[in-house]
Structures are given as C-alpha cells and as structure tokens.
Design goal:
Blueprint lengths: L2 H4 L1 H10 L7 E3 L7 E2 L7 E8 L11 H17 L4 E11 L5 H18 L2 E9 L4 E9 L16 E5 L4 H10 L6 H8 L7 H7 L4 E5 L3 H12 L2 E4 L8 H10 L5 H6 L5 E6 L10 E7 L3 E4 L2 E2 L12
Parallel strand pairs: 4-5, 9-12
Antiparallel strand pairs: 1-2, 3-6, 4-6, 7-10, 7-11, 8-10, 9-11, 12-13
C-alpha cells in the first residue's frame, strides 16, 4: 500500500497510532494544535529541514535511520541550550507512491530517538512532494536554569566537548567510496547519538557558552568565538585517538582522521566553554583555550581552508 492509497487522514491516523503520548502533552495529535505543559514558563524552540538527496539518501539509509537522524539533530540543538528535550513537531512530505511501510518505519525511528532523549512527537503535518522532506521543530524545558547561549565565553575559559567527533563524516566518506567498514562509522553516519543529558549537565556545571557540533568543530567553535567576541585555540594534541577513524583513513588512503574530527559535522557532539579550573566529568574532554581576540586557531595557528559543512556550497 502507498501513502496515496492511504490518503492524508489515513496517514495521519497511522502515524498517530505509532506514537506514545508524553507526560507534558495536554492535547496531542489530532487537533488543530498541540498543547503542552510548560512549567518553566519559557520554551526552547528550534527547527531544521531535511531534504532527500541533500541531507540523506534512501539507498544509503533506511527509514528508521532517517527518522532517528532527523530527530537527533533537532533534539541536540535543544540540549545545546542547556534544556531538556520535551517534544517534536514533524512536517513530512513525500511522493504519493511511497510505501506506507516506509513511512511507518520512519515514524518508528523518530519515536525511538525521542524516547532516548525523553521527548515525544506531539503533532505535525503531511503533504505530497516530489522527494521526501522532513521539517522538524523541537521544544525543550530549561527547568529553571538560564539558557546557555553561544555568547558567554570569556578569556581564560576552557573549551571542552562531550560525544564523538568525526565519525559521521568518516562514515559518509566510506559510503562515497563504496566501502562498508568500519561498520561503526557507517552506523554513526546513519544514526548519530547526541549526548542529550550533557547539555543540562553543562548548564549545571556553569558552562559559559555551548553549541551543537553539527557543521564541524572548527566551524561551530567559530560561531562561539564570533558570538562571544573571543578567540578559541584548539589543541589537537588533546583530541583523543579514535581507532575507527584511523582504520577508515587507512582504507581510504588518507593521512589520518584529524580532518574529520575538526571539520566533520552531524555527530552532534556538544562543545562548551567552562570557567578555568572547573572540574568536569570524564565524558567532557578539554580540547582548547579561550583567549582575548577573535576567530579560531588550531595549535596556535590561523585556520585556512575548509572549516566545516556549507549548506549552500558542499
């Protein structure tokens, strides 16, 4: 059966039946709009657009992976503000000949990643289109904390990250080369696993600025530096070795995996600045310093060339 056979309202009913209701949901799927409890009186909101052929390929990723990835990149933005993810709104457009089973698996991927973050899908919209497109809006709760923006880093702070760097980009390079190993990197590209809990944790630890590493560490550290009016110097000697990246680099005839760690996006690690001397849990790795000045340095040197993903150029 295709989604054309099922029809708009049949598709909505099918999607709604597959999605659990969250504790914060007062009115869920099926009305003109969702209603959520907002105990903090402030709501963190973010949105992203995913287009087939640009952000994902159906011959490389299954529908559940695509759904999970769509959820992850939005939920990670909420966490990067120091908030707890609460809900997603999902806009879904697709060709009429798309199989209903494919759409069901997509929804299962969305729901599964939401569950990992403690959120639920509370509404959205469906439409026809020539290709599959997803427009996701994520909402989050600050729990009484101040939001952690990109603009608070100060000279003397340290730069640290939680999560992984470079694995999704390495997985993409393997796909483009027609290789299937290391399998962990293929999986990382298909389905990133952002460290959601690290966002509120960083806020509680006194993070002065934070960002979701979606476009590449250098690019996103640059956003922090620009918004905060500081300079960030990344020490590559502090980046931990990743055997899978080294294996992939060898398979592709590259000198190493450092470039993936510095410029690869879509792992959705969280990068944050903290006051000097602040004790951090072991899953936060200090990789640089914040100084007076502007821009991003690597090992004290000015960065030249590509720094990450360009949505209009890559």
């Amino acid at each position: 059966m295709t989604i054309f056979d099922l029809g708009e309202f049949g598709l909505i009913e099918t999607i709604a039946a597959a999605l659990p209701r969250g504790a914060a949901t007062i009115v869920g799927i099926g009305d003109d709009a969702a209603v959520l409890a907002a105990p903090d009186a402030r709501v963190v909101a973010t949105t992203d657009l995913l287009v087939e052929g640009r952000h994902f390929r159906r011959d490389w990723s299954g529908p559940a992976d695509i759904g999970a990835k769509a959820a992850a990149q939005n939920l990670a933005d909420v966490a990067a503000m120091g908030a707890v993810p609460v809900a997603l709104l999902v806009g879904f457009a697709a060709p009429g000949d798309l199989a209903v089973a494919w759409a069901r698996e997509l929804v299962a991927g969305l729901a599964g990643e939401c569950a990992r973050a403690g959120a639920t899908v509370v509404g959205g919209d469906v439409s026809g289109a020539d290709t599959v497109m997803l427009a996701i809006t994520a909402l989050g709760d600050l729990g009484g904390r101040d939001p952690v923006t990109r603009a608070g880093a100060r000279p003397g702070d340290v730069l640290a990250y939680a999560g992984v760097l470079g694995e999704s980009a390495a997985g993409l390079a393997l796909f483009e080369a027609g290789l299937a190993e290391p399998a962990a990197l293929i999986a990382a590209h298909r389905r990133p696993a952002p460290p959601y809990a690290a966002g509120p944790e960083a806020a509680a630890l006194g993070a002065t600025a934070m960002i979701d590493v979606s476009d590449g560490l250098l690019s996103d550290a640059g956003h922090l530096a620009r918004a905060s009016g500081v300079q960030i110097d990344i020490d590559t000697g502090l980046l931990p070795a990743d055997p899978a990246l080294a294996e992939a680099a060898g398979a592709l005839g590259r000198p190493g995996g450092l470039d993936w760690m510095l410029t690869g996006g879509e792992d959705h690690a969280l990068a944050a600045t903290f006051p000097p001397g602040r004790a951090l849990p072991p899953h936060w790795t200090v990789i640089g310093q914040v100084r007076a000045g502007q821009g991003v340095l690597v090992n004290g040197n000015t960065v030249t060339g590509r720094t990450g993903w360009n949505h209009f150029g890559n």
